[in-house]
TrEMBL record, chain A:
<dbReference type="InterPro" id="IPR005182">
    <property type="entry name" value="YdbS-like_PH"/>
</dbReference>
<keyword id="KW-0812">Transmembrane</keyword>
<feature type="domain" description="YdbS-like PH">
    <location>
        <begin position="71"/>
        <end position="147"/>
    </location>
</feature>
<keyword id="KW-1133">Transmembrane helix</keyword>
<protein>
    <recommendedName>
        <fullName>YdbS-like PH domain-containing protein</fullName>
    </recommendedName>
</protein>
<feature type="transmembrane region" description="Helical">
    <location>
        <begin position="47"/>
        <end position="70"/>
    </location>
</feature>
<feature type="transmembrane region" description="Helical">
    <location>
        <begin position="20"/>
        <end position="40"/>
    </location>
</feature>
<dbReference type="Pfam" id="PF03703">
    <property type="entry name" value="bPH_2"/>
</dbReference>
<keyword id="KW-0472">Membrane</keyword>
TrEMBL record, chain B:
<feature type="transmembrane region" description="Helical">
    <location>
        <begin position="387"/>
        <end position="405"/>
    </location>
</feature>
<feature type="transmembrane region" description="Helical">
    <location>
        <begin position="67"/>
        <end position="87"/>
    </location>
</feature>
<dbReference type="InterPro" id="IPR005182">
    <property type="entry name" value="YdbS-like_PH"/>
</dbReference>
<feature type="domain" description="YdbS-like PH">
    <location>
        <begin position="93"/>
        <end position="172"/>
    </location>
</feature>
<feature type="transmembrane region" description="Helical">
    <location>
        <begin position="411"/>
        <end position="428"/>
    </location>
</feature>
<keyword id="KW-0472">Membrane</keyword>
<dbReference type="InterPro" id="IPR014529">
    <property type="entry name" value="UCP026631"/>
</dbReference>
<feature type="domain" description="YdbS-like PH">
    <location>
        <begin position="432"/>
        <end position="504"/>
    </location>
</feature>
<keyword id="KW-1133">Transmembrane helix</keyword>
Length: 160, 526
C-alpha cells in the first residue's frame, strides 16, 4: 500500500519563481566575493575562485532543481480533505480534513507577485499541522481559498 | 501585498476587549477587588530580593567607601526599592477589579492605559491555583483562568492574589458545568494519592545530575562574588595534593552526584508532597501538590485527548513511569518551562501508572498497556547507523585535533571510542525495542524513544490530520514515519520508521475515511 500522488501540479511559472529565488540566493555571496576580489589585490585568486565555484553551482542548481521540484510538488483538494505532497530528498505528504480547518490564508510575496503566484496556507488547531501550497497561480489560489473558506464555514464544530 | 481570509470556528472569538453587553448584570456591586494584602506581599518579596542583593553589593562597595557608609547607602537603596515596590503594587491593587458575569469574566487593570479584558465563560477551560510559601502564610493564592487557546498570554486572566476561599469559589463557579451524561460509570473522588515510597525514583531522574552540576556552578559563582574563586580552587587543589588527578576527578564527581541526589530528593518533596489526583463532579480532573508552594491544576475532561506514559531511562530501569495528560489548553506560558504542568502522576511503579491512566481515560484497561505492533528491522539498522555516526564524528574530530594540538585529546578520543560504541549500540537497540504502534479501542498508541521513552495514547477522534514523511534512506529501507497531528499536547505524535504498508494501514484505520481516498494498493513486487 502506498500514498498516491495528488492530482494537481503547481503552476508551471513556479519553476521560474524557484529559479529566481535560487539565483538571488547565490547572487548575494557571489557579488560580495567578486567585489572584494577586485578590490583586494593580494587575495584576488582566493576570493574569485570561490565566487566562480558558487556561481556555477548556484546556476546549476537553479536550472536543474526546480524542474525536479515541479515533478514532486503536487496538491489536491477534495470535499473531505486537503492533500499536499512536497519535498524531494525528504518527501512529505500532509492531509488536513475539511472539518478541522481553522484558517485559510493567501500570501503573495514580492517575487511571487512578479510571477503572478500565491501561497495558500491552511491551518488546523494543531500547532504542527499547517498545510502550505506554494506556487499556485494567483487566481487559482484566490478561488481555492474562497472554496475552502466556504466549505469550512459550512462544517459545524470547533475544529479541535 | 497579502490578502487574508481568516475564519474563526465559532462566532465567539476567545477574548474580545469589549465590556459585557448583557443587560441587567452590569451593576457596580458585582465588581470585586484583589486582596489588599498584596501590598504587604510585594513589600516582603522586594525586601527578600533586596536582602539577597545587599550582601554582595555591600561587600563590593565597602572596598571603596568603607563598611559604615556602604551599609548606609545599601540600606537607603533598599528602603527606596521596597517603598516604591509597595507603592506600585498599591496603585495596581487600586486599579484592578474583576467580575464574574453571567456570560463573561472581566478583568480591568492598568494605571494610564486601562486594560479591559474579558473571557467568555463557556470558553474557560482551566482554573489553576498556586500559592508560594509567603502567600500561604497570609492565606492568599494566585488564580489563573485560561481558555486554553494557543494565542499567547491574552487567553489567560491572572488574579494575583485573592483569598483561598475566594479562589475555591471561583474554581467551583467557573468550572461547574451541567453534569450531564458523563460517559460510563467511572468513579469520582480520589484517583491517586502520593505514596511516599515513590521518592526512590527521584534520585534516578535526570534532575539529579543537572542539580549536581548546578551545585558546583553555584559554589564557583558565589565564591566569585566574594572574589574568592581562586582560593576555592586552590583549597580544593590542596585537599588532593597527595592524590592523583584521576582520584580527584572521581571524588569531585561523587560529591556533585551526592549534591544532585540530595537536591533531587528535596525538589521531589517540594513538588509532590500532598499530591492528590481527584475527579470532581462535572468531569474535571484536579491535581493538588506541593510542600511549600502549593499548586492546584484543574483539567476539564472534555479537553482531555489522551495520556502520555513517559519513562525516562533512569526511572524505566526501576520499572516506573510518569503519566502526562494530553489536553488542549493548559497554560502554555511560563509553566510549560517547568515541564510538570500537565503531569497527572509523578514517577510511580508501572502498574500504578497504567491503572491511573485507565482511570483518567474512563477505560477498564489502559490503552498504554496494549500490545504494540513492532517496526521492521530496517528501523534498527537506521538507529544503529545513526548511533555509530554520532560516536564516530566527535571521536574523529577529537583525534584530528589531538594530532594537531595536544596528545591529551587523543586519550579522550580513545576513551570515547571505547565507551561510545557500546553505549550507542545499547541505546539504539533499546530505542528499536521501544518502537511500536497500535490501535486500542478509541485510542491510537505510539511508542518511541530510549532516553525518554514515551507511550502516547491519543484519542482517535482527536486526530486532526496526518503527516507522512519519508526520506531517501527511508524509501530505500521501505519504511516511513506517520505523524498524527492534534490540537492537544505536543501537537503531533509520530510512529517512526514503520513498515510502509503497515504504517499507512494503521493511519487509515485509526481515522476511518480520512486517508483512504489517497491510498492505492500496489501489487507486491517479488
Amino acid at each position: 500500500m502506498r500514498l498516491r500522488p495528488p492530482n494537481n501540479t503547481l503552476d508551471p511559472r513556479a519553476v521560474g519563481w524557484w529559479r529566481a529565488q535560487w539565483l538571488l540566493l547565490t547572487a548575494t555571496p557571489v557579488l560580495v566575493l567578486a567585489v572584494l576580489g577586485t578590490l583586494i589585490g593580494p587575495a584576488r585568486f582566493w576570493l574569485l575562485l570561490p565566487a566562480a565555484v558558487l556561481a556555477v553551482l548556484g546556476t546549476g542548481c537553479a536550472v536543474l532543481l526546480p524542474v525536479w521540484w515541479f515533478r514532486t510538488h503536487r496538491w489536491e483538494v477534495t470535499d473531505e480533505a486537503v492533500y499536499v505532497r512536497t519535498g524531494v530528498f525528504r518527501q512529505e505528504w500532509r492531509i488536513a480534513p475539511m472539518s478541522r480547518i481553522q484558517t485559510v490564508d493567501t500570501v503573495r510575496g514580492p517575487l511571487e507577485q512578479l510571477f503572478r503566484l500565491a501561497t495558500v496556507t491552511v491551518t488546523t488547531a494543531s500547532a504542527k499541522g499547517a498545510v502550505r501550497i506554494e506556487g499556485l497561480d494567483h487566481e487559482t489560489a484566490a478561488g481555492l481559498a474562497e472554496r475552502l473558506t466556504r466549505i469550512t464555514q459550512d462544517t459545524p464544530g470547533d475544529a479541535t | 501585498m497579502s490578502s487574508e481570509a481568516a475564519l474563526s470556528p465559532s462566532p465567539d472569538a476567545g477574548d474580545d476587549r469589549s465590556p459585557a453587553q448583557e443587560p441587567g448584570t452590569a451593576t457596580t456591586a458585582d465588581w470585586r477587588r484583589l486582596d489588599r494584602r498584596t501590598v504587604l506581599l510585594s513589600a516582603l518579596l522586594t525586601a527578600g530580593v533586596a536582602a539577597g542583593a545587599a550582601v554582595p553589593t555591600t561587600l563590593g562597595l565597602s572596598g571603596r567607601l568603607g563598611l559604615g557608609p556602604a551599609i548606609a547607602w545599601v540600606l537607603a537603596g533598599s528602603v527606596l526599592l521596597i517603598g516604591s515596590a509597595a507603592a506600585g503594587d498599591h496603585v495596581r491593587w487600586r486599579r484592578t477589579r474583576y467580575r464574574i458575569g453571567a456570560d463573561r469574566v472581566e478583568l480591568h487593570t492598568g494605571l494610564f492605559l486601562v486594560k479591559k479584558r474579558s473571557l467568555a465563560r463557556e470558553r474557560i477551560r482551566s482554573v489553576d491555583v498556586t500559592a508560594h510559601p509567603l502567600q500561604r502564610v497570609l492565606g492568599l493564592v494566585t488564580v489563573r483562568i485560561g481558555t486554553g487557546e494557543h494565542s499567547g498570554n491574552d487567553s489567560t486572566l491572572e488574579l494575583d492574589p485573592v483569598t483561598r476561599p475566594e479562589s475555591e469559589r471561583l474554581r467551583r463557579e467557573l468550572l461547574a458545568r451541567a453534569a450531564t451524561g458523563t460517559p460510563g460509570t467511572h468513579r469520582e473522588g480520589e484517583l491517586a494519592a502520593l505514596d511516599p515510597r515513590w521518592i526512590r525514583y527521584a534520585p534516578v531522574s535526570f534532575v539529579a545530575p543537572a542539580l549536581g552540576g548546578a551545585a558546583a556552578g553555584a559554589v564557583m559563582q558565589v565564591s566569585d562574588w566574594f572574589g574568592a574563586q581562586g582560593q576555592v580552587i586552590e583549597w580544593v587543589g590542596d585537599r588532593f595534593r597527595d592524590t592523583s588527578l584521576l582520584t580527584m576527578i572521581v571524588i569531585l564527581a561523587l560529591a556533585a552526584v551526592l549534591a544532585g541526589v540530595v537536591g533531587a530528593l528535596g525538589l521531589w518533596v517540594e513538588m509532590w508532597w500532598n499530591y492528590r489526583l481527584e475527579r470532581e463532579p462535572g468531569g474535571t480532573l484536579r491535581i493538588r501538590r506541593g510542600l511549600l508552594t502549593s499548586r492546584s491544576v484543574s483539567i476539564e475532561e472534555r479537553r482531555l485527548r489522551g495520556v502520555d506514559l513517559v519513562e525516562p531511562l533512569g526511572i524505566r530501569t526501576f520499572g516506573a513511569a510518569r503519566v502526562d495528560a494530553i489536553t488542549t489548553g493548559l497554560a502554555k506560558d511560563d509553566e510549560e518551562q517547568h515541564g510538570d504542568h500537565n503531569t497527572l502522576l509523578p514517577a510511580a511503579p508501572r502498574p500504578v501508572a497504567d491503572a491511573v491512566a485507565a482511570d483518567v481515560l474512563r477505560e477498564t484497561t489502559s490503552p498504554t498497556g496494549a500490545p504494540l505492533t513492532g517496526h521492521p528491522l530496517a528501523a534498527r539498522g537506521r538507529r544503529l547507523r545513526r548511533a555509530l555516526w554520532a560516536v564516530a564524528v566527535p571521536v574523529l574530530v577529537l583525534a584530528l585535533l589531538g594530532v594537531l594540538l595536544t596528545p591529551v585529546l587523543l586519550w579522550i578520543a580513545l576513551g570515547c571510542a571505547v565507551v561510545g560504541p557500546a553505549a550507542g549500540v545499547f541505546l539504539a537497540r533499546d530505542a528499536y525495542r521501544g518502537l511500536g504502534h497500535a490501535i486500542s479501542g478509541d485510542y491510537l498508541v505510539v511508542r518511541s524513544g530510549s532516553v525518554r521513552r514515551s507511550t502516547a495514547a491519543l484519542e482517535r477522534a482527536g486526530v486532526i490530520g496526518w503527516t507522512v514523511r519519508q526520506t531517501y534512506f527511508q524509501r530505500r529501507a521501505g519504511v516511513l514515519s506517520v505523524t498524527a497531528t492534534t490540537a492537544a499536547g505536543a501537537g503531533a505524535y509520530t510512529a517512526y520508521d514503520t513498515d510502509m504498508s503497515e504504517g499507512l494501514r494503521f493511519a487509515s484505520e485509526a481515522v476511518p475515511g480520512l486517508l483512504e481516498p489517497f491510498l492505492e494498493r500496489v501489487p507486491p513486487t517479488g
